[in-house]
Amino acid sequence: MKILIAGGSGFLGSHFIRYMAKKYADYELYNLDRINFMDEFSAVKDFSIPESYHFIEGDVRDNKIIETTAKDKDIIVNFASINRDKETGLSGDFITTRMLGTFNLLEATRKFGIKRFIQSSDYEVYGEARSKENIGRPSIESDPLFPTSPSGSAKAGADHLVNTYYIRFQTPTVILRSASNFGPYQDPLKMIPLFIIKALEGKSIPIHGDGNYTRDWIYVKDQCEAFDKVLHAKGIDGQIYNVGAANERTVLQMTDLILTILDRPRDLIEFVPDRAGREMRRAIDVTKIREEIGWTAKTDFNKAIEETVNWYVENHWWWERRLVKDAKSQ
Prior knowledge:
It contains twelve helices and twelve strands. It is α/β, with parallel strands linked by helices. It has a domain of about 230 residues: NAD(P)-binding Rossmann-like Domain (Rossmann fold, 3-Layer(aba) Sandwich), CATH 3.40.50.
């Protein structure tokens, strides 16, 4: 099987590639991205680049490279995204990457008869967890989308585009909307790595507002298994699945847990002004994927957090280099 992974150098994409390479030695994995994550992983002890891995330098907004790359593939998995705050400010690149990139990949799926297109989305598209009757509960796949951020709106727009291709052209699509993920090798500017690093360095940990807004957390290894299950499932074209682990924690609870694991004082916490439009609760119901696909998150939450914290403690070299690279690019 030949799988095209768009945006495979990001956090989830790179974990997915390594997961698939380890489990399916006979699969050919093609990473289409602007950078090659293997350049960084090559410095990791005992890490070797799988023979099944191929890197294609390119941008999903470039239709020519999409057509050249996609025409002989069996599956497309789209992780392509841009961190608006970090990389583009308000330039709009995060919108075109999501919308135009998704369009190009969908067109290739339709044109070349690719067996399945999997869209990696986010529970951010739902906005505040609520029912149509405005009753608080975890979001389900049929809920309306009310994103409260530009990045969430771009993801919601891409989801609508994916649904349209299934309805209009019967393109074999599946959308996965994931909870907040975490694990080793995550961008040092993301919340959990940032708080770990701040605590390690004895620096203040900035928490917006009172920190009592909740998020649903999933370990990246469980997330990869969900994508694997969906990739191989039969008869699910046009479906949407939530991918979460029912691990709701407030940001303050997550911070306290990190500080406890690292044995750091709680007075490192610094409350800063909140952002406008922040949802008090993001949460998703995962009944559908459990009942239809047979997937459920397996990793114990506390064990996963402890493993993640310990990884950052033991791998200063990795995140210190990333922070230096980020500083130079600004």
